[in-house]
Design a protein that fits this description.
The protein contains 16 helices and 22 strands. The chain is α+β, with helices and mostly antiparallel strands and about 500 residues long. The strands form five sheets. Strands 11-9-10-1-4-2-3-22 form an eight-stranded antiparallel beta sheet. The chain has a six-stranded antiparallel beta sheet with strand order 5-6-7-8-12-13. Strands 16-19-20-21 form a four-stranded parallel beta sheet, sandwiched between helices. Helix 9 runs parallel beside helix 10, helix 9 runs antiparallel to helix 14 and helix 11 runs parallel beside helix 12. The longest helix is centred in the last third of the chain and has 21 residues. The chain is globular and about 75 Å long. The two termini are about 30 Å apart.
Length: about 500
Amino acid sequence: MCGIVGLFAHAPVNQDLFDALTVLQHRGQDAAGIMTCHEGQLYLRKGNGLVRDVMRYRHMQRLQGNMGIGHVRYPTAGNNSEAQAQPFYVNSPYGITLAHNGNLTNAQALSEDLFRTDLRHINTTSDSEVLLNVFAHELQTLGKIHLEPKDIFKAISQLHQRVKGAYAAVAMIVNHGLVAFRDPHGIRPLVYGERTNGKGKEYMIASESVALDTLEFTNITDVAPGEAVYIDAKGQLHKQQCAVNPELNPCVFEFVYLARPDSIVDGISVYHARMEMGQRLAEKIKREWPDNDIDVIIPIPDTSRTMALPVANTLNLPFREAFIKNRYIGRTFIMPGQNLRKKSVRKKLNPIELEFKDKNVLLVDDSIVRGTTSKQIVAMARKSGARKVYFASAAPAVRFPNVYGIDMPARTELIAHNRSVEEVCKFIGADKLIYNDLSDLINALKACNPNIKRFDTSVFDGEYITGDITQAYLDALEQRRTDSTTQDELVRHSSVIDLGNSI
């Protein structure tokens, strides 16, 4: 999971890109980067850290131009060194830079093919650099000095035939324009919008609609699965379907946890979807535990607030904000490294003992992934005086690795893998554990947009939407991620990359 943004305007875009990335910071807090284009020259600033820490005033001054792209990174492939920060750049052909959200499932084979057949060198272990070089090669084979929209779309059509997995990308071609494209399943989100100033229309492409809202862009629509959007150097927007048999199968976890509640993703209000999840969770509790002795409903902030409220209303129980969140601690799920996640939970949440003492509490969370956070929170509730601690997850049990851009790679890290509900309940220390059903989760999303026929639910049922995932692939991925985590400890404190002058 990462956040990407692309912007074409009639004035400098550096501040707008900064603001958009800040709004998308929840999608990645490990690294940030911005690249702009001015009179045929590219300007880059990227490094490890939050947007506000990487992009200082002196860096912003150097990011010249009325066109640019940006990225916030949450590492899933490759290690966490500065070399993995995006956007990436290749000088041939034209000068192309790209930012990517997702994960290519055939990245290793593509990397080898790029070297042996396309004669291109991949400098990092990032699949995003692979995606960039595939795009660059397909443009180069056209052999044209000046690109037309049909040339861009032809290259992306060829890219779709070579690349597998999840990818939502924005790219910038020097002296030509801004490009965005999405994989044929539309697994990761991508939306675009427009605004008008005195000189004409300006366009923004982003991972979530909330970035458009904040910068007063009108949301046009989502980039369709397999579709490409191209804004040329004159500010004209072109779009075309570039894939064979595309079908919208968005990642269900975007709605459970990843996206902001004020975003609209593929026609679904994330806020509305989470209300629906909570409603169905409440109905399951009433159905399967009608004689419960719950005294109070307590959400685990922030995501689960929206889900916990309909649980309280439906069960006719009080809703209490009994955990106070430190706003200066990032999202623990997307923190790099399990040790850092463990240390951050107690610093992030502080209980109000009054709301726990001598009560039977139902803690509501969006999901349970590794289980370590849930275990610490249950312990905090008991220490605060709770008589009994029940736990409810608005999502089903996460039992399988994610291969499409979310850091759930190792089955051994997933607490529910090969464990019963009772075993998970015992591990986290709760008196009772309730999961939402997968069918109810899907129905909650379809209630918000019935036109989507199928979602990627692989983390819950092990059915991978792209159809190319084998057990051997999962074993190899798990080993690479383990090796990458070890290497990450060695490189985390390296220096930032700052190409303030043109490259």
